[in-house]
Design brief:
heterodimer; A: about 325 residues; alpha/beta; Ubiquitin-like (UB roll); Rossmann fold; 8-stranded mixed beta sheet; 5-stranded mixed beta sheet; 11 helices; B: about 80 residues; Translation Initiation Factor IF3
């Protein structure tokens, strides 16, 4: 039978109870979870007796730190909280935050690790690939034992081992024009950790159309770039690069290579942007493109303005819904 | 201490920094603005740092008294601001 768990449809054996579902979903602290079944709350004493049916919709309602932080949370996040800019308020905002990372590869690995470590309440992991040996040089979510495993599953295991207190949502499969608006709908911030232009334009367009802030990043060889989009503030990715390049016009990383630690640098900056956005602190990288040349250890922040003629965020947009592009993909 | 209507008391002598400060801060977060809390702190680093750091967060130290056993009692009025 199929159940919809936190908005994600999954296959489960017939006759599954709520208690067994919590075990199957590896909910670390089921005693602290409230369960809503088809929008009705299930009493904790009824978990073992409540049998789920095909098509049921289940939400796990976690303690999100909206009130007091537990002693364990205080200790785990103490180095965040003692920062004046963060404090209890910032930590609670992280706990209440929901971030989707599209791509659990080179960029997504550090981004997801740091967001999980920081206590972001809900992390979405979207990927359609499996772990390959050649990924391990930079995709630090995955280990040798994970080769062949779905990246979403491998990532979920790594993140759960790091921080069992946060909630992880797995979105297995590629983001496409027909699913991306649903995919991003429930998140506060999106991180583009993908490796190809088609996905980057798709994510950009969907986030602009949905009014969703996101972090764009790209890496190749020893260079990387980063841009944060917030609705109404500065350019989107398409303002800078109007259309995806024709296939073959720009070398993919399979042709050009990418140095592993660079993915760590840029993906970590994406996590930093997401955290700043959630906490409402600092200055986001809006209105500027950060470029990084790791060989010469050069960082440049290039001011860029929104383009009035942009096809998606401009004054007269012509892109009114997400569209798929053809593009040779490479694995970052 | 009897001069104040203390709504919360915590013994923090088993803690070391930064948990001493964080537990005091979290306890104050639970109280309404202007409420008074007291904390038992060890002499030395704790009693030197906790009042100073709480002051930076906008809370007001009302009294620090030496308990004569190597510990101090800190009485703090919570800030009116959200923490």
């Amino acid at each position: 039978m199929r159940l919809v768990i936190s908005g994600v449809s999954k296959e489960y054996p017939q006759g599954l109870t709520v208690k067994e579902l919590l075990e199957a979903e590896k909910v670390a602290t089921p005693e602290y979870v409230t369960v809503a079944l088809n929008d009705a709350l299930v009493d904790i004493g009824q978990f073992a007796a409540t049998v789920l049916k095909d098509g049921d919709s289940v939400e796990f309602l976690y303690y999100m730190g909206g009130g007091a932080l537990s002693e364990e949370e205080l200790r785990r996040y103490s180095r965040n909280i003692i920062l004046k800019e963060v404090g209890l308020k910032g930590q609670k905002r992280l706990a209440a935050g929901k971030v989707l990372v599209i791509g659990a590869g080179g960029l997504g690995s550090p981004a997801l690790f740091y967001l999980a470590a920081a206590g972001v309440g809900v992390l979405g992991i979207a990927d359609g690939d499996s772990v390959d040996l050649s990924n391990l040089q930079r995709q630090i979510l995955h280990g040798a034992a994970d080769v062949g495993k779905k990246k979403t599953r491998s990532a979920e295991e790594s993140l759960r081992a790091l921080n069992p207190q946060i909630r992880l949502r797995v979105h297995e499969g590629l983001a496409r024009a027909d699913n991306i608006l649903d995919l991003i709908a429930d998140y506060d911030f999106v991180i583009d950790g993908t490796d190809n232009f088609a996905a980057k334009f798709l994510i950009n367009d969907a986030c602009v159309l949905a009014g969703k802030p996101f972090s764009h990043a790209g890496i190749i060889r020893f260079t990387g770039q980063l841009l944060t989009y917030v609705p109404g503030r500065g350019p989107c990715y398409r303002c800078l690069f109007q259309n995806p390049p024709p296939p073959g016009a720009i070398p993919t990383c399979r042709e050009a290579g990418v140095i592993g630690a660079l993915a760590g640098t840029i993906g970590t900056l994406q996590a930093m942007e997401a955290m700043k956005y959630l906490m409402g602190i600092g200055e986001l990288l809006t209105g500027a493109l950060l470029t990084h040349d790791a060989l010469n250890m050069d960082f440049r922040k290039i001011k860029v303005a929104a383009r009035p003629g942009c096809a998606v965020c401009g004054e007269r947009p012509t892109i009114l819904e997400p569209r798929d592009y053809e593009n040779p993909a490479c694995e970052l | 201490m009897e001069d104040f209507a203390i709504e919360c008391h915590l013994d923090l002598t088993d803690e070391v920094c930064p948990m001493t400060f964080l537990k005091a801060l979290a306890a104050l977060d639970e109280l309404r603005g202007g409420a008074v809390a007291s904390f038992r702190l060890n002499a030395g680093e704790s009693v030197a740092n906790v009042p100073r750091t709480l002051k930076e967060e906008g809370h007001k130290t009302l009294k620090i008294s030496d308990n004569g056993d190597g510990t101090f009692t800190l009485v703090v009025k919570r800030s009116l601001e959200d923490l």
